[in-house]
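Course assignment 3, question 2. Fill in each field.
Student: A.L.
Task: Predict the tertiary structure for the chain below.
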Amino acid sequence: MAQKVFKRTEIKYLVSKEQVQQLLWLVEPYIKKDRYFKGTNCSVYYDDENRYLAIHSLEKPTYKEKVRIRSYGVPKLTDTVFLEIKKKVNGIGSKRRVPIKLSDFYNYEKTGKLEAKNDIIRQELDECFNRYHLKPTMFLAYDRTSYCDRTDPTFRITFDENIRSRNDNLRLEAGDSGTKFFKNGEIVMEVKAGTHYPLYFVRALSKFKIYPASFSKYGRVTQKVIYQKGIIKNV
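Answer field:
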């Protein structure tokens, strides 16, 4: 059964390809390829007409949330995707999601009705769609490589490359093409931990002078679109 609820600390770092190679070389004895080692994550983000959720996340608030429909690879209408609400409170992230057939999700967009209304996660998503009057605002994709600790699978390290987005044709089945965000091939490393980092990883970060960086993919790409294309005025 697909996991529906995640709760963990999630810290991001902006790194170069050289730093990734150095880091992996040093920690290789302690980590292994994750069960989802390589793949392309595709998401359509939902927001209000003023992109409130994206802009709010850039202000580094104590509490923030975002809503997206996500697939692993480019899906067909008959494939299962995940409707997700992701929250962060004081640096602790939680993600709740509902597996749903893509065609059923599009039906939900039209009718405003999800099945199994007694499901607490579906109720939470439903309330969020109604509260913010959500609509699709951005497609975003990236190529991910994932590792985890050899003895503690809750400690995960992911590397996201080729972050790309588009503001039209906002359907998952339309492919994973888009405009690249980074010009110099930077990589977003995200470290997900249930409690604390293993000592070997702390030492590796220190050795290569890798420091945390506040980076919301949806927030930062939206920010770039706002200023380059003037989609939103007076931000």
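Instructor remarks: Residues 15 and 21 are 10 Å apart (CA to CA). The domain at 5-229 is CATH 3.20.100.30 (mRNA Triphosphatase Cet1; Chain A).
Grade: pending
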